[in-house]
């Protein structure tokens, strides 16, 4: 099993490897920096989902050797005046089948939401807010606002389960 990962982000990579090796112990992985073709800070479920799918599709355009490619994308969305982090994943198979899944979201404080509405990106804003570096590679905003209970990689691990579950079901249905 050969799996391509459409990012160099450490939290996303950890999630892909952790869940994939549970199901495919001999899996080989390769990270590739692929374009999401959406804005640096996606501002809706639609845009964030599209970013994940674009990343996964791009991986499989370039490399037909792999069994599947995974794209993971983080963004935000606003509901009734509250901004939430939102997260999407996509798995594209070598046959070109596309599976998608969404993950957990938590509300962001208004002071952070206001900065994003003014054009800032969540990653750097979270680093200033927490006085830490590269939060997006570790616990992420979701880790900070759940008091460490759900890290960014744990959240993406759940998305990976949803993706691999759909992929395995589709293979079973073909048998
Ligand atoms: O290298 P890539 O794969 O692009 O990973 P990223 O974390 O930089 O980028 P995303 O496209 O997933 O997310 C868009 C922006 O939102 C930020 N972001 C999203 N979810 C986050 C989280 O949980 N914590 C901190 N920043 C987050 C992220 O750092 C980007 O600035």
TrEMBL record:
Write out the entry's keywords from A to Z. Answer: Hydrolase, Magnesium, Manganese, Metal-binding, Nucleotide metabolism, Nucleotide-binding
Q: What is its EC number?
A: 3.6.1.73
One Pfam assignment: NTPase_I-T
Give the InterPro entries listed for this entry.
Answer: ITPase-like_fam (IPR029001), NTPase/PRRC1 (IPR026533), YjjX_NTPase (IPR050299)
Q: Which reaction does it catalyse?
A: XTP + H2O = XDP + phosphate + H(+); ITP + H2O = IDP + phosphate + H(+)
Non-canonical purine NTP phosphatase/PRRC1 domain location: 6-162
Cross-referenced SUPFAM superfamilies: ITPase-like
UniProt enzyme class: hydrolase
Q: Carries keyword Manganese?
A: yes
Cofactor(s) listed in the protein's UniProt record:
Mn(2+); Mg(2+)
Q: What name does the UniProt record give this protein?
A: inosine/xanthosine triphosphatase
Supply the source organism for this entry: Psychrobacillus mangrovi
């Amino acid at each position: 099993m050969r799996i391509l990962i459409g990012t160099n982000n450490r939290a996303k990579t950890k999630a892909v490897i952790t869940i994939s090796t549970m199901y495919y112990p001999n899996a080989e992985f390769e990270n590739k920096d692929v374009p999401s073709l959406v804005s640096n800070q996606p501002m809706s479920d639609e845009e964030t989902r599209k970013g994940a799918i674009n990343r996964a599709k791009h991986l499989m355009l370039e490399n037909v050797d792999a069994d599947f490619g995974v794209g993971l994308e983080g963004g935000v969305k606003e509901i009734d005046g509250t901004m939430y982090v939102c997260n999407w994943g996509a798995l594209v198979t070598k046959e070109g089948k596309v599976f998608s899944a969404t993950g957990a979201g938590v509300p962001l404080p208004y002071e952070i939401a206001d900065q994003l509405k003014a054009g800032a990106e969540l990653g750097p804003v979270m680093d200033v807010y927490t006085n830490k570096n590269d939060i997006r590679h570790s616990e992420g905003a979701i880790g900070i606002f759940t008091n460490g209970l759900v890290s960014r990689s744990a959240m993406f691990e759940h998305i990976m389960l949803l993706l691999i579950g759909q992929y395995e079901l589709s293979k079973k249905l073909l048998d």
